Amino acid sequence: MITPTHSVEPAPPAASAIRWYQGVTRAQWLILLIASASWIFDSYAGQIFNVTRSVMLPGLLDMSPADPSVKFWGEVFLGIALIGGAVGGTYFGSLSDRIGRKQALIITILIYTFACVLIGLAQSAWQVAVCRFFVSVGTAGGWAIGASLVAEVFSARSRAQAGAVFHSTSNIGVGLASVIGIAVGTDWRLAYFIGFVPIFLVFFLRSGPREPPGRKEETGASGSPRPGSLRELLTVPEIRARALLGMLLAAVGIGTYWSISVGGQDMVEDFLLRHGYAPGAALSRAQFAYGFLINGGGFVGALSFGPFAQWLGRRKAFACALLGGMLIVPATCYLPQTYGEMLVLLPVFGLMTFGYHAGFAFYFPELFPTHLRGTGAGFCFNCGRPLAALFLGLSGWLKSRPFLDIRGAMCLLALLYLLGIVCVWFLPETKNENLNKVF
Fold first, then answer.
1. How much of the chain exceeds pLDDT 90, in percent?
2. In angstroms, rounded to a whole number, what is the distance separating the alpha carbons of residues 433 and 439?
3. Residue 237 maps to a domain
4. Which of 182, 184, 255, 266 is disulfide-compatible with 388, CB 3.0–4.6 A?
């Protein structure tokens, strides 16, 4: 097991009696607000394609919505987003270690904002593909920078809760994309033009909070300043181990999110069809169940994971959440006998299967020294995306087997949570650590 190497910041004597938000300064709130606002619009820019593609692609391709090529292009765009996320998250996380969090965050906002608007002007599928790549580059880079920035400005007592708030705001962006997608209907271009709004965040960043102290003064592992070195991240044994294990943990989280959490809609639809509901009614109720109950439970889980990890410790909190995810899947698949019973379990299903993702926002930055914090956090979270594609392939294969129904497939996929527990077992505990210390 890797042992912690940061120094531990002792908790104040009466820490248990102090709320995490007590003593937080106005400047810290402002940084959390700006980082969260950026992440909301990051999520909007990434999600609006999923909401509008059913009306956008047939028109651009001049094909019927039922044409197989439409689905093919949709899968191509998903692959492009995964690649763009890996590139952007790693590069801009590294760039933020070299030039500062604020300046790098401004660049990512400009990239995904203009790329989103350009999708609204696109006249062909390949133009959308190029812009979709840059949207993913900007949004993935924005997460790595925002997570590192929030982790650095909040104390050890408040870091987990603030990071959880930051990450959970992605649900607002997803909800905003859904509402606007419904509101614009077939006028899908308007939804992308609305993506220009976050450009105003740039003005707040330029005149807003200062760069966190101590970042530029820190030195690399060799004794000389080497901020943002991907080579150091992947060659120094202890740092490399953390980066690779963190990447695998993120891959488990992302892969199970798409195959299990999002797959919960198909699970509910299958349940209703087996209980005699008409196909149209089953689909609409399943969409409601996913959009409000599963996602709502995930949102609550994200907000609560920060306090949970601060109380129990990072490793134990992740282990409990992953174990809970593995157990709640078969319970939700096989225990309910009525739709009402299913509705009761679905918020718990969402909470347990992906609420712990909020932990990535504060745990990954805590794993790395300051001069590699953005690089490491971006590498873990975003390079885990292409790896998660392998789990999605496994999901598609299992769900297409004639000897398995969707319940059996999801229960087998839930075993992936065990892989996440193994990763956490070999990662260090970082609760109460001083992030300004070097390895």
1. 58
2. 12
3. yes
4. 255
Per the structure block, which two tokens stand in for 343?
Answer: 């509705």
- Cβ 314 vs Cβ 366: under 8 Å: yes
CA 213/CA 54 separation, integer angstroms = 47
Q: Are residues 207 and 233 in the same domain?
A: no
How far is residue 412's CA from residue 395's CA, in Å, rounded to a whole number? Answer: 9
Paired residues of 265 in beta bridges? none
Whether residues 120 and 237 share a domain: the answer is no
Tell me 434's DSSP state: -
Question: What is the residue-wise DSSP string for 239-305?
Answer: HHHHHHHHHHHHHHHHHHIIIIITTHHHHHHHHHHHTT--HHHHHHHHHHIIIIIIHHHHHHHHHHH
* pLDDT tens profile 248-267: 999 999 999 989 998 898 99
Give the tokens for residue 151.
Answer: 């982790």
Asked, for residue 9, whether it belongs to a domain, the answer is: no
Q: Could you tell me which residues come within 8 angstroms of residue 7 by beta carbon, excluding any fewer than 6 positions away?
A: 433, 434, 437
DSSP state letter for 216: T
Q: Is the dihedral of CA 299, 275, 259, 194 positive or negative?
A: negative
User: Is 10 among the domain residues?
Assistant: no
User: 425 and 294: one domain?
Assistant: yes
H or E stretch covering 361: helix 360-366
pLDDT at 204 over 50: yes
- What is the pTM assigned to this prediction? 0.87
